[in-house]
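User: Can you write out an input/output pair for a complex, sequences first and structure second?

Assistant: Here is one pair. Inputs:
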Amino acid sequence: MAATAPPTTVTLTIDGQEVTVPRGTLVIEAARQIGIEIPVFCYHPKLSLVGACRMCSCEIQMPPPPGQQPRPPGILTACTTQVAPGMVVNTLGPQSTKHREAVIEFLLINHPLDCPVCDAGGECPLQDNSHAWGPKESRFEEHKRLARKGAPLSPLVVLDQERCIVCYRCTRFMAEVPGQAELDFFSRGFSSQLRTIDDQPMKSHFQGNIIDLCPCGALTSETYRFKARPHDLDHADSVCAQCPVGCNMIIDSRSNEVVRVRPRQNEAVNEIWLCDKGRFGQYYFSSKERIAQPHVRQDDQLRPASWSEAIGSAAVALQGVKGRYGGQAIGVIGGRNLTNEDCYALARFASEVLETPNVDHRTGARHTAANPLAEHGLDAFNSPFVDAEGAGAIMLLGTDVYEEMPVFWLRIRKGVKNGAKLIIANPRATEADRVAFHRLRHRPGAELAVLRGLLAALVESPPLEGPAAVEASPPAALEGTQPAQAPPPPTRDLSGLRDALGDASVEGAAEACGVTAETLRAAAATLAGARNPLIYVGARLAIRADAPGLAAALVNLATALGQRRAVSFFPEGANARGAALAGLVPGEGGLPAGEIIAQAAAGKIKALYLVGENVLATHPDAEQARQALANAEVVVVHELFPTETAALGATVVFPATSLGEKDGTLTNAEGRIQTVHYALRTESSARPDWRILSDLSGEMGASLGYAAAVEITRDLLADVPAYAPLADGAIPAEGVIVRQHGGEASDGTGTGGPNASWGAYVPIPEGPALAPPPGQEGLTLVTYGELLGDESTLQDVPEVLEMVPEPYVEVNRQDAARLGLTEGRLVRLRTARGGVERRLRVNGRCPVGVCYTPDNLGRPRVNMILDWAQPFPTVTLEPVREGVAAEALAEAGD
Amino acid sequence: MAQTPPPASPAPDGAPQGAPPPAVPFERVLTAAMGQPGSHELDHYLRRGGYVGAHKALTSMTPEEVIKVVTDSKLRGRGGAGFPAGIKWSGTRGNPAPRYLVVNADESEPGTYGNRYAMDTDPHMLLEGMIICSFAVGINLAYIYIRGENLHGYETLELAVRQARERGYLGRGLFGTDFNLEIYVHRGAGAYVCGEETALMESLEGKRAQPRTRPPHPFQVGGGLFGRPTVVNNVETLMCVPHIIVRGAEWFAAIGSPNCPGPKVYCVSGNVNRPGIYEAPMGLLLSELIFGDEYAQGVPGGRAVKAVSPGALASPLISGGELEVKLDVDAVRAPPYRTQLGAGGIIVYDDSVCMVELLLRAEQFFAHESCGKCVPCREGTHWMVDVLRRITAGRGREKDLDLLNNVAGNMSGLPFHQRTLCALADFAAGPMMSAIGKFREDFDYHIREQACPQQRQLAHA
């Protein structure tokens, strides 16, 4: 066949201007490229095409077939029509403007026109388009349609059906982007109405986005409803600090109070989405519960104090400990949710003023390497988020990414939609399982065995060499087209890996992790056959005792797949990556955060400096944390809210300012440094953490000497090697990815760190046995984080609190049946340390013999019953008698 | 496209019909078995020469030859759009497998019932047509989407499919060849819009029945059922196919109108003496159909024909003075009629019918059936109902007629405008505009006298 390839671009004329665009471009996008905006309602570049509103219709004249007369221009929708060579588009032709006037008239005849009391008023596409294109007056003199008003779709989103213009943006978003079709239109035609499935409240973490997408006031936010008009609002460009994705957002405030949060477009990070914690979880900036002034302890009671008194007494106490026991006796924990500036000031304060190596931002960490991949010459996170879109396979190990980094889950899902095969290794079923290709349900704590199994399977049948390996097999052989037979590329030499693995076999690993050997082999084959495989590992695995072994196995896996950069660890905490770069990691001979608490409990650490770390709630052994606070001579706390740590143990409490009140930078999981601008004035006497540290250092005689955050930013960029490319101080609006190891982010290969033997296989150190051996009495308890946990940031917003699940424990149906327990019962989880009460969830998500409970929900936290010495404790469940009515209800629900 | 030379003595377009007598008298083939008990059984069909066409096509012809015969026969879709079946088939065959066949048996417009009787009488004729089509296009899985209310038709088809499968006419290795075909019968859930091919496929896929954007068209990848290239044909179209294969393309092309040949099943209803199903050559004169002795035999009481819907409720009206129109797809589209044949459901209204009341009922139907996806249709149909209701309630105003005409015009996309995704808006707008244009006096009377002209007539009678 000598057919010439069709040209890849198309030239057409839009409103008299010639424009050349790629084939397949939609007319509306071609027009946008030359600055011509065509009005739309249903069209959205992030969603599929429906062509429902007909607003974008233009006069479009197709070129006539050769030898024929041209047909008159037709009215076609610019949002569904692809460009064609020689096409002539007139966006303002008399027929199309007349048609648009008709569409607006049709849309408005049943719209309530209640703009003066509508939240969308002033920023409403329906309003704007009506003014621009609509008729001057209405010819409609009949009765308007009546429908549901103020109907909650969830505690967060409110529907006004009368305003709805049925553009399907909300339903398309939910079905296509997070893949949670929780709402749809019911009934037909004129009676179409938006409802949730079975009228149950929406549960998705992404429902707030439908408010942004709604082109009229039909969907409004429960927290913003009737609070302000757009022209009353002040806006600040900020970055969300609720998780390590670092979504860009705009904080809208009025009279120095947060009234709403909107996403800010950054295609590399969050596109145009926010999760509901990011959107509805920023009201704490203006919380009335915030600590308003410093406190010092006197007669075992915290009492308010002036700043000078508090600074003075903290300085004296810390100097005393340092003098008596040396800097080694001081532990500093904090930074994962602070700005880079706070982190850098804290790191300098720890090393220069306190002179302690015991610094860490990773609560509960058991080993010193903040980045377990560092010794292999890799960053903790080695690919930009966007790479997930083009991956051929994505493996998620030990993470519920939907809860951990929700907006990044949308990116992974996009990758899956683009053809990535998703492999999930997790003991428990997660949201991501719904689109998983392989599910490896392993025993808790057996991640290393899973990796060994995958590696052994790769050694058995090695992947093909080179990128041609993937292209060799055509995607789907089309009928009648015989693919040219190319010689199969050679397979990769994995002898080095065989040596590194030792005598590990797939069967042995399968036995150890509880996943069948076939599943391991199938998953390994999928990874081996994929172009650009990526492996993402949960944050909890990075701080576990066996992290070095996991890291070595993961690096081997990535190397065997030909893409050493494929492996990435999620950080725990919004700015954990920034904190690590700023130096909040254990120094020479220093202790990790978990050990700092353990040593303080043992009386070896005499002073604790806790910045935004409520260790009583977050250290995985509350009793140990309590002892630590009791035994430490000095405990200095920076906090936003009065916490149990502050109340129980603090010698001095400094009120800190929230992210909404400070300038600075944050570094997200992928290493992207982004700028935060303050949105609110601080009304109390709270100060930024860096300023408290600067003041305190001055009082202790070694002043950091900072008077403004920008000074720290400048020092940080100049001082930390990874930030060196930014030393001129200019951080672009979309942020920039920095790398600690392996050269530039865009560089595909890199050179490896100083100690790395790049490309070689590494021995896998044997980790400690974590999980209790099978066959024990009781269930193995696994804890994890819920997105909407850590309620202190949500506490002022009852609508959001309604979304927070009641503290629960999840068990498998079989275990529940064996224990005689039923869904909804209140149960007590009991270990040797005591018991906490949780509501029972019985399902098939949780594996047999295991129970799951979030460790960031409910008081007391589950860490009350955890023991630092036992990462996976065995618990018993016993029913708790509730009030008769409650029990009867529970029975009735069975 | 290779055109076969026209038949020896074609009636020139526009010449009075019936002047040159056809070489062979017209023979009913689609409704031949109507009225014969047990005609839906496989054995009955086999006795009448059933499955000979399928056997011939599969055992002695290549798929290309089958498509060529169907193309040469100039068979055009009987569902309303009149698209040449052969071109549709070859277009689909040119796209990669798997491909599907979907039979549109969602006949749900007021005034159409031809497919229902055809399926009740001769379900195997449809199955045979499907087998030939599937063989020609390279399809191994076919669906019949039947209107949900037509339970009897569903059961008849299910029985037919079972009998055909038992006899080896469906399943694996048909007629000793290596061709496989499976047919599923799927019941709709009561939406008129499912008669539109893309909405039908959405419904068949288990989704909300709403038309899709085109392109991609159903015959293309991404546009058809489950995203695969798909042939969507009407029941009657496929029932013509076995006869074309057996008797040849020339036989078919010689019947009726040269541009749109073949036998056609007309369903006549309304004010006629003998309503019912009449199979006649495509291009029969409307007056012949209404008044002919073989056909509907005139209007009861000798009343005058006031108006006719030539393509059931959705077609623009023809006035009583325009009955000398040939009933074929092209002729009714042409000026001055500018209407459509639809699926051939002819509704006759005599002079006792008030056009305002008629339009109110029609528009209520379309407003109820509008799927609501496109704004003009969702809002416009209801607006027209509201205004018509007000007029019939005696609260009409002079300006209402301009309003109705304008609203209908804002909905109607014909001929070049895609104001909506499917033709339902045109179906609602066409009768409205034609009624105001041709029967304005009924509207004026309603508005002026705040009463129905027919009430007066009744009072005077």
